[in-house]
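This week, work through this protein record:
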Amino acid sequence: MSSASPRGDDPPGDPPGDPPAHRGPPRPPVPPWPYQLRLPLAPYRFVWRDGAAVGAEKNATDSYTEERYRHADGTCTIIREYRADGSYHIMSDRGEIELIDNANDPYAPDPVSVVRLP
C-alpha cells in the first residue's frame, strides 16, 4: 500500500493534497536582533555612531522597504520602513541604537530627530 497522493507529488508522510514539505538544504536560522528600535512616523536623520558600514543592499516587499548594512566586524544593521504608515524598525546585532528625539522637543534647534546607528 502506497502513502503517496493521487497527484504523486506528496512524499510519504505528507497528508494527501497538502503542499509538499520543504525539500532542499536547511534554511539558515533567523539572526538574533538583540538591539531593536521601533520609530513612529516623524522626520529622522540616520547617522553612524562609529565607522560607517562597508557594504549595503536594498530589498523591498509589498509591506516594507529595507536597507541592510554590513560592517567590517561581520555584524549587521537593518533599517526597515513600513509602507502602510511610514514607521521604521531598526534591528542590529552590533550595539545600542540611540534616538535623540528632537521632533517632540519644542526647544530643539533642529526639529528632525537623530537616530545614531551602532
User: Anything to note?
Assistant: The longest strand covers residues 64-70. DSSP finds no helices and eight strands in the chain. The CA atoms of residues 54 and 71 lie 5 Å apart.
